[in-house]
Amino acid sequence: MTTIFGIRHHGPGCARSLLAALEALQPELLLIEMPAEAEPLLVHAAHEAMKPPVAILLHRSDLPEKAAFYPFAEFSPEWQSVRWAVQNGVPIRCFDLPSAHMFALRDDSGEQEAESEEPEEGKEEEVIPPQTDPFEWFAKADGYTDGERWWNDRVEERRDQSDFFEAILEAVTALRGDLAIPESRETLLREAWMRKCLRAAEKEGPEKIAVVCGAWHAPVLKGAFKVADDNALLKTLPKHKVAATWIPWTDERLAVASGYAAGIRSPGWYAHLWRNEEDPIISWLTRAARVLRKEGQEASSASVIEAVRLANSLAGMRGRPLPGLDETLESIQSVFCQGDPLPLDFLRAPLLIGTRLGQLPEGLPSLPLQQDIDATQRKLRLKPAASVTPVELDLREDGGRARSIFLHRLLALKIHWGRKENARTRGTFKERWSLQWKPELAVSVIDASAFGNTIETAASRRLVNEVAGQAGLDAITERLDLALLGALPLAVEFLLRQLDAAAATTHDISELLDAVPSLARISRYGDVRATDAAAVSRLLAGFAARIHAGLPAAASGIDDDAANQLSASVREFSAALAMLEDTAIIEDFHAVLGKLTESTQVHPKMRGHAVRLLRDAAHLDDEAAARHLGFALSPGMPALAAANWLEGFLQGGGSFLVHDRALLGLVDSWLASLDADAFQTILPLVRRTFGTFAPPERSRIAASVAQGISAHAPAAASVTSDLDLQRALPAAAAVAKLLGLPLSL
Amino acid sequence: MSSPVLRQHAETAFAAELAALAAHDERPRPPRWKLSPWAVTDYLLGITLKDGTVITPKYVGDRRIIEIAVATLATDRALLLLGVPGTAKSWVSEHLAAAISGDSTLLIQGTAGTSEEALRYNWNYAMLLAQGPSEAALVPGPMFRAMKEGALCRVEELTRIPSDVQDTLITMLSEKVLPIPELATEVQGTEGFNVIATANSRDRGVNELSSALQRRFNTVILPLPSSLEDEVDIVRMRVASMSKALALPAEPPALEEIRRVVTIFRELRSGATEDGKAKVKSPSGTLSTAEAISVVTNGLSLAAHFGSGTISAHDLASGMVGAIVKDPVQDPVVFKEYLETVVKEREGWKDLYRACREQI
């Protein structure tokens, strides 16, 4: 005898009823609506260490990105039935159309092609064709506005569970008969396959067979279907090789908002219903109150009582057996939030969706690369979590360095677990990352596994492969950075050769400029296996020579945007050279900068910036800088050009304006000398320039201006105050000792 | 019988509907409720009863809002209706009181001058001076009577009442008791007693409710009508009932005219045209649905008494300008700009454009 249990994926009421029904039936064989490839994996479901949400991932062996997921939550009927079967020693058979055919079928039809680019394939999960929800019809007949609510009330949140599956089977049978919605070829094939498997199972002779499948398919598994028709339909199906594995899943990806077609509105609510069979409402509202309290909202215990009463009263008015998600949310809004819907957002992640990440037992068959990643994660104590975890790494410590290398290697593999953020501190020894493990990263891992079986080899090979064909300097530099930070010497060596080749052919100075900082880092600090330092130096010298030759031309006749970009790049370049301490190159560079400052063809911003760089490098003294400034800001110069010059000059901080009153005086008197029209023209530019300074810098400059600057007054004048030398002496002595300076008074 | 009143109370105006609902109402009723919560909801939202009696909708909008309000009153928690002016707060509260208690007259109007006495009770001072405090000398207020009779008491514009006076409500709401210390006695609320308060969300921060008082209320925010169609419906319904009450001889306004007024109000209120293509400036007034209703009624009255009897753009324009231009300096500029950039370009709106331009 065969009993068919038509279910809806993910629902606590359904799962509970199904368990009770299986317990009562005690079947000898369980057929479940999953592709055959998943069958060997199901036995792991009963493993102690397996913690849902988890998913079975099926993918084409040759094209890992062609993949389909079968997620399970703890409250999924399939999950509970599989666990029940494994625990009770009942054999399980997966009787849905194998993915081997499914992937091949999708390849055939062009419109499916686009869809399968998305890793999420909810399609075969679905009970119902997406265009119309058949449960809408039941809902309408029953006085509900939508099918989801109807199913919730009638199925998920009901207490009495007897005869529930018969009723569903009957209802869907009638519905499919009456609606006669034309099914897609895929659905027809799947249903034919299911019938074929069911017949085979029945022939083998077990007395009692339980079939768990989507409610939509339940009516067509038995009845007047001809064996020959089914066989004809299933003849010569195309096929691909498919691999299957367990992967951890998240609550978030169970939600319909994540784009999962068979998703549910609130996984958190269902999980709560599953775990709290008795009095779910009281504990739910208490949890909500605690979340709101943590966010600084008022939510007293007295309010929880009132919210429970309101929810019950609302449910009563709407004729529902128990308050549902809507009633609880409405009472939370009305009682806790003074009618304001905004605080409900606080509940979203912790309560409505949930932040759990599934866990897999160790030793499950998985890809070697995945194993390597798991092992490294354990070794480095970086636990994957579904929520965003900030991590700060101190690169002076071995542990921090190892973690940084690991995360960079994953980035090189395009496994975007970590996102690098700008460190708040200025120092270079700290890195800030934010880590968030998402289920789709499992696909990235499979994708990356094509490049190798360990993180290191795969990352190296991926970087090398990606640049092998292309000549773009920036693409190479970007990967060179990753290779360096990820400590991948093989890749570094190859990328350097590529870079050399590409540099010879490029005409774009800014690309060259941008490549230098990475190179300088290698040359200065070396990398783990000591890449041939001489080669890098040679490369650098070549780069510098090309840049020096091209820079004056590159800085001439360009527009403001290009000048902005160029001056930023030149600044980085200059910093990199300073780090290298190669005096020959630096002298060359300064000579080029000197040329820039004099040339009238060069964009004023670049000219100003060149003066600034020379001054910062102490190549120009203050007097010379003041002369340049005075010239650039003199009345003969068009106001706009002057303002641009000033912007270039002040780029990268204006703290020296605070100290060098002569310069500040020049700027001040230039501004004061402008007529109204000119002032209006340059005001936005100047504002923008000063806007980039740090607020304390700005306020100090403003204070100096307010005090009144005399361009002729020596800068030191303001320092003459009545110092009490006697009292200052011990402090000065201590400072001198710290700095190792001789103290002379 | 005296001459007919200008505006009847809800329970009088809709007596027939309430009676019909009560006759069909078989569901359990909370103590002293005239109707069951279901019937109250139907009364507000409108329904056709089994025998064909049509219950007109009193509130057009989200069913959930009314359900929460009624469910709140059924739990003996006080109800606070919050919203910008003209979102039918008082209207809903009046009809709730009429449907639940059959009496919407127990009303306290909140003002800056509302005193504790208005919320509690007053004295017949002549008697008080002559005989000292006694029950005979006590003059009960609406709240007092509502507690005794087990009825609903309405407090309008709760947030206009000074904060120290507001807090008088706390004991009444939490312990359902009104103490009379002068007589060393108290009035205990009987079953069925509850409070519906309304507050204007534009008043936020004037006399903010203390958190102790806030906690005694379930708050329901009444939103502005979400769609143009809803709002046109509301205006049409109200104008029809008002013109009947005012006995205006004019023809009922064409739906198209109402739609134009509502569209203009909605666009100026939201700061964007309905098609979302253009940004417009918002004038200083609220431009609520209630004001749109009065513009149309006003236009109807003009058409009836001075015009052709059919409402024209000209009849609407003066009322509209009056409703939109509240600030004599800024609002004319805003409205003119709107007329020039939006109304002028619209197909078939030329008459309205010209009529408005003449007025401003």
Low-confidence stretches of chain B: none
Beta percentage of chain A is 5-15%
What is the approximate shape of chain B? globular
Detail the poorly predicted runs of chain A. 110-132, 711-719
One letter per element, helices H and strands E, the order of chain B comes to HHHEEHEHEHEHEHEHHEEEHEHHHHHH
What shape does the CA trace of chain A take?
elongated
- The overall pLDDT average of chain B reads 88
Into how many domains do the coordinates of chain B divide?
A: 2
First-last Cα distance of chain A: 106 Å
Strand order within the widest beta sheet of chain A: 1-6-2-5
What is the count of helical runs of chain B? 17
Which oligomeric form is depicted? heterodimer
| Widest sheet, order of strands of chain B | 4-7-10-3-11
CATH-level-2 architecture of the largest domain in chain B: 3-Layer(aba) Sandwich
How many beta strands in the DSSP annotation of chain B? 11
Percent in helix of chain A: 55-70%
Mean pLDDT of chain A: 80
Our estimate of the beta-strand percent of chain B is 5-15%
Describe the overall structure.
- The complex is a heterodimer of chains A (745) and B (360).
- Chain A is α/β, with parallel strands linked by helices and 745 residues long.
- Among the domains of chain A are: 2-258, no CATH class; 276-353, no CATH class; 368-449, no CATH class.
- Chain A has 33 helices and 10 strands.
- In chain A, the strands form 3 sheets. Chain A has a 4-stranded parallel sheet with strand order 1-6-2-5, sandwiched between helices. A 3-stranded antiparallel sheet of chain A has the order 4-3-7. A 3-stranded antiparallel sheet of chain A has the order 8-10-9, covered by helices on one side.
- In chain A, a hairpin with a 6-residue loop joins strand 3 (54-60) and strand 4 (67-72).
- In chain A, helix 26 packs parallel to helix 28.
- The longest helix of chain A is centred in the last third of the chain and has 22 residues, at 533-554.
- Chain B is α/β, with parallel strands linked by helices and 360 residues long.
- Chain B folds into 2 domains: 62-221, P-loop containing nucleotide triphosphate hydrolases (Rossmann fold), CATH 3.40.50.300; 228-359.
- Helix content of chain B is 47%, strand content 12%.
- Chain B has 17 helices and 11 strands.
- Chain B has a 5-stranded parallel sheet.
- In chain B, strand 8 and strand 9 form a beta hairpin.
- In chain B, helix 3 (37-45) packs across helix 5, helix 12 crosses helix 13 (255-270) and helix 12 (228-245) packs across helix 14 (289-305).
- The termini of chain B are far apart.
- In chain B, 44% of the residues are buried.
- Chains A and B meet through helix 13 and helix 14 of A and helix 3, helix 4 and strand 11 of B.
